[in-house]
Design goal:
The protein is built from 7 helices and 7 strands. The protein is of the alpha/beta class. The protein has one domain (about 5-190): Maf protein. Strands 1, 2, 3, 4, 5, 6 and 7 form a 7-stranded mixed beta sheet that branches. Helix 4 crosses helix 5 (about 135-145). The chain is globular and about 55 Å long. The two termini are about 15 Å apart. This is 7-methyl-GTP pyrophosphatase.
């Protein structure tokens, strides 16, 4: 069965390749902020936003590929009611890290399976990450070392790289943190007969 990952994320690609899945990738062409704005009237939780964006990404790509099973995924980062987005520049990345310093934030990762416009399954997995207290000078040095790649992440860090040095505690699934709740996804793909069970 053909699978499409509605993403261009190298991290999601790596996770699926490492799991031995055969798939292609195609980025969704949706305006994420417009979807969030439309949701705002319902006062959605960060989890609702992640799940809705995952579904919308999968629906968008599925609309161009009849009969194909499409995987959508999206991640939001929330801290005491505030939802963070990917930083636009290094100054915003510093602001993100400063806000999260010494506090616990949540990574909310939505995943969905869509075929022919029908959402066959979706769910949200949550991880809680506690950042150690960080000095402004350490944040500056850290960002200088790791560079622009922090702009690709909602949290302005990559846990699989030097970003691990920012944390004192992590509660949650590693795959969820990287942006794709792989274990529940694999279970559902097996249930649907999309991969070998």
């Amino acid at each position: 069965m053909t699978l499409i990952l509605a993403s261009q994320s190298p991290f999601r690609r790596m996770l699926m390749e490492n799991a031995g899945l055969s798939f292609t990738m195609e980025a969704a062409r949706i305006d994420e902020r417009a979807v969030e704005t439309a949701l705002a009237a319902r006062n959605p939780s960060p989890q609702d936003v992640a799940e809705t964006l995952a579904i919308e990404k999968a629906r968008d790509v599925a609309g161009r590929h009849p009969g194909v099973l499409v995987i959508g995924s999206d991640q939001t980062l929330s801290l005491e009611g505030r939802v963070f987005h990917k930083p636009a520049d290094m100054a915003e990345a510093k602001s993100h890290l400063t806000s999260m310093s010494g506090r616990t934030h949540s990574l909310n990762c939505g995943v969905a399976l869509v075929r022919d416009g029908e959402t066959l399954w979706s769910q949200v997995s949550i991880a809680h990450l506690t950042m150690r207290p960080l000095s402004a000078s350490f944040i500056d040095r850290h960002l200088s070392r790791v560079g622009d790649k922090v702009l690709a992440s909602v949290g302005a860090y990559q846990l699989e790289g030097e970003g691990v040095q920012l944390f004192e505690r992590i509660d949650g699934d590693y795959f969820t943190i990287l942006g794709l709740p792989l274990l529940p996804l694999l279970a559902k793909l097996r249930e649907l007969g999309a991969i070998d069970a």
